[in-house]
Amino acid sequence: MQQDSADAHPLNQPKLGLMMIFGLFRKKNTNRRIVEAQYALLTAAARQPALYADLGVPDTVMGRFEMLSAVLILYFRRTRRSATSGQEIAQEIVDAFFEDVDHSIRELGVGDVSVPKRMKKFAGMFYGRLESYAAALDAADRTALAAALRRNCYPQAADAPSLDGLASYLFDAEAALAAVGEDVVEVGRLRLPPASAG
Prior knowledge:
The protein is an all-alpha fold. The protein has one domain (35-185). It is built from 9 helices and no strands. Helix 6 runs antiparallel to helix 7 and helix 7 crosses helix 8 (164-178).
């Protein structure tokens, strides 16, 4: 009886087992394409020239890190209320982001021994921003968000420009993302609105 029970298991039936395995590969490949498409849209949003030319973000390596962090935070806040598939994509976006950071650190010539320490530092920076930006967004406090952005974008500049316009853009972008349907989230097509000086 035990042998019959084992033979009846789906993975012990050649055709059915192969179908299940290939189905898993198809799902993984589909998810990878979705993640790559969504991550490309998010990085493009963080690189919009208006953010740097008009809204006060410094056009530096760290300035670009700050904007990608802010864009990703808006994306994660949107997907936290998504179905399981949307949350799975969001988790893979997190992984892609830190892979990107790792790659960038190595491109800057940081040795292998120092990379984990730098990665830990960047992870701490990212999650610190997630906490402070989320608090300001949840409280609908544009002044607090602008202050947090200014502090992070210009950590050592006493005469840093106001980032009120950037804060307003992020509030507007979050509202726009909230209005987007789950069908868009699930296929990795979530787009932030264009940034502008106005």
